[in-house]
Specification:
Largest sheet: 7 strands, parallel
Bound molecules: NADP nicotinamide-adenine-dinucleotide phosphate
CATH topology of one domain: Rossmann fold
Shape: globular
Distance between the termini: 41 Å
Strand content: 15-25%
CATH class of one domain: Alpha Beta
Helix content: 25-40%
Number of strands: 11
CATH architecture of one domain: 3-Layer(aba) Sandwich
CATH superfamily of one domain: NAD(P)-binding Rossmann-like Domain
Strand order of the largest sheet: 3-2-1-4-5-6-9
Number of helices: 11
């Protein structure tokens, strides 16, 4: 029984692929940009952009399970091709954002919501993983930190429960190999509610160097973020952070209840990723 791992270049997809392969499961790596993709020895890599169905048939040949990144533009074609290929279970990397009251109108939340809905109505067995913000989002501060510049934020006191990508990958593998999570929706968070300011203090401590935080206006944040992401995404993130400003993040003990161990901390993530911030 082979598993197709989409988003094999992504932080979570890459970790899922490595775990399944090293545990001896048959896997195929799919990526929208397969050229130069590093996969474990012996793993077949295929080009598959989820919003372009041309390559689906070949990618799904012999596949019984899919680890899926959400892409509403191609989901109907993917479901049809998966059913034709005999796929039995889809594990979706969804998002906690689908629970937001405005999820229907929010471009980021809607992206995952539409894929959840399509799978829920498809008859395919599915598991929805709904992580809170990734600890790895802190890499977005690396440019400023590496140059000794202040990290400029509109909502430095917005609180999330940052989750380590390896914990998402561990739960995904449990869903793909354990058999007990089919039909379930799994909320995933890190172990602590931390503001951006607190995350930066952890990073400063781990890196052994001061990091300045500067509060900026919403208009400044729109200009700053608009340089590298589309305006609707900027608006969506700023709305999310405004709603989380000073509000403790909800915590879930899913890693403990499903894997029997606590979730990795943000400090652990920071310690493993000092190189991204110019550390050693
Ligand atoms: N970042 C967060 O805080 C957060 C929180 C909750 C949920 N999520 C969800 O997690 C997912 C990935 O998050 P991320 O970007 O932060 O991290 P990531 O795991 O690094 O994902 C980026 C990867 O997504 C894959 N991808 C994107 N568009 C694709 C397409 N059209 N077809 C196939 N694959 C595609 C690409 O992999 P390939 O290049 O290999 O195709 C890309 O490298 C998103 O759906 C997001 O909604 C993120």
């Amino acid at each position: 029984m082979s598993t197709l791992v989409t988003g094999s270049r992504g932080t979570v997809g890459r970790a899922v692929l490595a775990r399944l392969h090293s545990a001896g499961h048959a896997v195929r790596a799919a990526s929208a940009r397969p050229a130069g993709l590093a996969v474990p020895d012996g793993v077949e890599a295929v080009g598959l952009a989820l919003d372009r169905p041309e390559a689906l048939e070949g990618a799904l040949h012999g596949v019984r399970q899919i680890f899926l990144y959400p892409q509403p533009a191609g989901i109907d074609a993917l479901i049809e091709a998966a059913q034709a290929a005999g796929v039995e279970h889809v594990v979706l990397l969804s998002s906690a954002s689908v629970l937001a009251p405005d999820a229907e109108d929010d471009p980021l939340a809607r992206h995952s919501l539409l894929v959840e809905r399509a799978l829920a109505g498809s008859g395919l067995a599915h598991t929805f993983l709904r992580p809170d913000a990734f600890a790895a989002n802190a890499v977005g501060w690396a440019h400023s930190i590496g140059r000794g510049l202040p990290v400029r934020l509109a909502h430095p006191d917005a609180r999330t429960a940052p989750i380590h990508s390896e914990d998402i990958a561990d739960i995904a593998v449990e869903a793909l190999t354990g058999g007990s999570l089919a039909g379930r929706t799994v909320a995933l968070t890190g172990p602590e509610s931390l503001s951006f300011r607190e995350q930066l203090a952890v990073l400063a401590d781990v890196l052994g160097r001061g990091i300045r935080v500067e509060r900026i206006s919403r208009a400044e944040a729109e200009r700053q973020m608009g340089a590298y992401m589309p305006a609707p995404m900027v608006a969506s993130l700023l709305r999310f952070w405004e709603a989380a400003d000073g509000v403790p993040a909800t915590l879930h003990d899913t890693t403990l209840s499903l894997l029997g161990r606590p979730a990795r901390t943000f400090r652990q993530w920071a310690g493993e990723n000092t190189a991204a911030f110019g550390g050693h």
